[in-house]
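Late entry, iron/sulfur cluster complex.
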Amino acid sequence: MPKLGFVQVEVSTRCQLSCLMCPKSCFSDEWIAKDMNMETFRLIPFKKFHYAHLQGWGEPLLNPNIGEMVDIAAKSCKVGLTTNGLLIDHHIDSILKLDLLAVSVASGDARQHERVRGCSLEKLAGNIKLVSESRGKRPKIVIATMMLKSTIESLPKLIDFAAECGADEVIANNLDYIPSKELVGEEVFGLTADKDVEKAVEQAGKRAEELGIGFIAKPRLMEEALVCAENPVENCVVAVDGRIAPCAYLNLPTASETIPRWFRGRTVEVPKVYFSSFKEWLKSDFRDTFKRRLQVLHQSLPTELPPLPQPCRTCYKAYSV
Ligand code: SF4
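Prediction complete; structure with ligand written out below:
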């Protein structure tokens, strides 16, 4: 069997922050905060994948075994993680072994960043610079941000921040999972384009070109995709307890068996989706549905598109954003 895409590994569900848009902040009463143990981690078949991303709903650098985890995964595939950046200086030796380091930053404006993420932008800048000034060929440094209505204006400023820190790229993601009613209206995507949002994205793109760094902004117009960007045909998540999920959006470390979502003006509860083994995931109807949707691309005659799996119908990722 050819290698699969990526395995996302939820090495910790703990986090020292409580960011505005994070489900941990919204579901704090029922959040199960723990670290993945080494026994579970060692069972992951990294050889089957091109890439391992050591991050789930939590801060990976809080797992006391993160250094050993990076070493184990790096023997079989490329490795990266996304961090809130606060502990980079404590783990610099392991960070320098990564292929990809993504640091979450809410805004290039210090006050906006602190409002959304509750931590200092200055501290992050120091830690990102530490990596860019100490690295050889790796890791690639990516600033990962979330486009919100209340911060989008400062997106061009984030490009300057990234360049000053020595980062290679900025990725602007969407608020594609809305866990609470209070966040409705913060999303920048929809059925029509928003002029102010498009202007900020365009300006950020121009600034990135001027400064010679990469810039990717996720689409803002909703349109049903054959397969979402998480692509559960090629990729999967290993949850903190070792269960396999098709994506992070169907895995949440809460006591409940369902996941609340706000989707197009209403709240819905979708069941969590887990498989007990990689074999079970590979053979699942869930994965097969997306495989059959992708096959439509190779049909010469018009073919009926299999409907999205039920839990995906109310997931914004299924609509390309
Ligand atoms: S559409 Fe959403 S819920 Fe379905 S696999 Fe993709 S990310 Fe997961």
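The CA atoms of residues 155 and 204 lie 6 Å apart. Will revisit in the morning.
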